[in-house]
Automatic annotation (TrEMBL):
Residues 71-401 form the NADH:flavin oxidoreductase/NADH oxidase N-terminal domain. It comes from the Eukaryota. InterPro entries: Aldolase_TIM, OxRdtase_FMN_N, Oye-like. One of its GO terms (molecular function) is NADPH dehydrogenase activity. It comes from Cerrena zonata. This is NADH:flavin oxidoreductase/NADH oxidase N-terminal domain-containing protein. Residues 30-49 are annotated as: Disordered.
Length: 426
């Protein structure tokens, strides 16, 4: 891999993990705790150049020495079963793409709760069965000396109403602005959730939160489930691509008149509350957040990109400068399609966020990745090229030709074809 590209990823994850054996490393950490010495950040904490050890704080997980290679961007694949539980296919899929020690994988979006879903065959992280299944995946990745972050996902108005109805949930969103060919979603409320249930003639619970605050807590609980139970190294809050958090952020799809709408500050409130709750739940160094300032996917265009995201990113930096990373999508891509970005650029975000770790994803080739790493210092994430090239870090490093992907297999439920059947380079 190009030297600068590798060094930028190392800046995120740290160049060395454990120069001693895992047991010796954990013993040294235990002695350090007893002596009151300062502790190393989690695997996604930044390290100084002469660091000798980096461990997963709180879980005391240690990994043998390795170099950091690349980042797998989150990719929806629809391989979970009808109960949103992953099986052996996912274990093999993530094992293959973590075969280069030190690779950071960001999982496909995992629903934070049943009511936050609305697509079939997407994994969740709210039931014991789902968590146990994810633990098999994280174990497989850690055996390869790589790392896995769980992307936390809530759909809002982009959900399939028929799927929600079948599962016994309401169709909701940030506002009542519908997506084409879908009904109007019911806006999430700031009234007491007990009031809402009473109005709907449903049973009450003791001291329920407001409905929006319930969602904030669902994100926090999902973070706990992922990190403390399923063994993920951290979580990424999905605040991009027109899903629930974006529906609060973007002016074109937020017509609220309460404290969650009407101004730049109010539209950013839900995203910041979710981030704050996840940080409190699992620690800042185990939390990243993904945003898509220029993307109009799911009819989520925004009319004031730079003012809105300048405020949001500034507030994230002010409140939580020690989060694992900020993840941005590039304007040259909308969902699966490339486009001309014209004068659109994420440089205004880089100016705010630098020198903190910034992951950039969207339409990267090897040459573009090297150029951006050289000139901007970004950590580059690859999505679609990682699907047919499970050994992508090696192929990029050695400039080996990439296997083309077959888009028709991207979303075929519970099948190995186009998922785990791509070959490694010889």
């Amino acid at each position: 891999m190009h030297f600068k590209l590798r060094k930028n990823v190392e800046r995120l994850l740290g160049k060395t993990r454990c120069l001693q054996s895992p047991t010796a490393c954990c013993n040294e950490r235990a002695n350090s705790v007893r002596s009151g010495a300062s502790q190393t950040p989690s695997p996604l904490g930044q390290l100084t150049g002469d660091s000798q050890h980096s461990m997963a704080v709180d879980t005391y997980i240690c990994f043998p020495s390795h170099k950091i290679d690349h980042v797998l961007a989150p990719l929806t694949r629809f391989r979970a079963n009808a109960q949103h539980v992953h099986g052996d296919l996912a274990v093999e899929y993530y094992r293959q793409r973590s075969s280069e020690p030190g690779t950071l994988l960001i999982s496909e979006g995992a629903f934070i709760a049943g009511k936050a879903g609305g697509f079939p065959h997407v994994p969740g992280v709210w039931t014991d069965e789902q968590i146990i299944a994810w633990k098999k995946v994280t174990d497989a990745v850690h055996e390869q000396r790589s790392f896995l972050y769980a992307q936390l996902w809530a759909l809002g108005r982009t959900a399939d109403p028929s799927v929600l109805e079948k599962d016994g949930y309401e169709y909701v969103g940030a506002s009542d602005i519908p997506v084409t060919d879908k009904p109007k979603p019911r806006p999430l409320t700031t009234c007491g959730y007990a009031e809402l249930l009473a109005a709907m003639s449903k049973p009450l619970t003791l001291n329920p939160p407001t409905e929006i605050q319930e969602y904030v807590q669902l994100y926090a609980q999902a973070a706990v489930n992922a990190v403390q139970k399923a063994g993920f190294d951290g979580v990424e809050i999905h605040a991009a691509n027109g899903y629930l958090i974006t529906q609060f952020i973007h002016d074109s799809i937020n017509n609220r008149t309460d404290e969650y709408g009407g101004s730049i500050e109010n539209r950013a409130r839900f995203a910041l509350e979710v981030l704050d709750a996840c940080v409190k739940a699992v620690g800042a160094s185990k939390v990243g957040i993904r945003i898509s300032p220029w993307e109009a996917y799911n009819e989520s265009h925004i009319d004031n990109t730079i003012p809105q995201y300048t405020y949001l990113v500034n507030r994230i930096r002010e409140l939580h400068p020690d989060i694992a990373y900020l993840h941005v999508t590039e304007p040259r891509v909308v969902s699966l399609e490339s486009r001309d970005p014209n004068d659109e650029s994420n440089d205004f975000i880089r100016k705010i966020w630098s020198p903190l770790p910034l992951i950039s994803a969207g339409g990267y080739t090897r040459d573009i990745a090297i150029e951006v790493a050289d000139t901007k210092g970004d950590i580059i994430a690859f999505g679609r090229p990682f699907i047919p090239n499970p050994d992508l870090p090696r192929r990029l490093r050695e400039n080996i030709a990439l296997t083309p992907y077959d888009r028709s297999t991207f979303y075929t439920p519970e099948t190995a074809k186009g998922y785990t059947d791509y070959p490694f380079a010889s």
